Amino acid sequence: MKASSKMEKKTLVMGASTKEERYSNMAIRSLRKHGQPVVAVGLREAQVGDVAIVKTIPEGAVDTVTMYLNAHNQALWEEQLLALKPKRIIFNPGAENSAFAKRAEAAGIETIEACTLVMLNTGQF
After folding, report:
1. What are the tens digits of pLDDT across the range 93-110?
2. How many CB atoms within 10 Å of residue 109?
3. Could you list the residue range(s) of the whole structural domain that residue 20 is in?
4. For 118, how many CA atoms within 13 A lie in the half-sphere containing its CB?
């Protein structure tokens, strides 16, 4: 089971963008560079490297959700994200949402206000 555990640690990037200057795009590329499986959800279907950006949350196990949507734009996704039961949700700078974080924590999901890029580059991911 150890060999497959890495594939089970999929990261869902919410607010994915094809614009290379966007932090969500940098996160997708950095996650892949670090060997992490990635699912990306954005406004438009597109591609970032070998990762497809889709417009709906795909089914399947997700270990981490990394949030690049502001609190207002998260509202549409909250129920689906809670239903996924990820291990943790990372609220990147600009995506902080204390109300959603409290709901996630009440559902047993760890929440972190941090930068995914910094976490990856410092071995804290």
Report:
1. 999 999 999 999 999 999
2. 18
3. 2-121
4. 8
